[in-house]
Amino acid sequence: MEEPLRIGAQDDEVFDRSRRIGWLDLESIFNARVMMVGAGALGNEVGKNLALSGFRRLTIVDMDHVVGSNLNRCLFFTKEDARRGAKKAEVVARGISKISTIADPIALDTRIEEVPDSVLREQDLILGCLDNIQARIHVNSHAYSLGKAYIDGGMEGFVGRVTVVKPPHGACLQCGMNRSHAKVAEMRFSCTGKDVVFHEPRLAAEITTTSIISAIMVREALKIVSGRPDMSLSNAFYYDGQRNVSEEIEIPLDPRCPAHSRAD
Question: Is the pTM here over 0.90, yes or no?
Answer without folding.
Answer: no
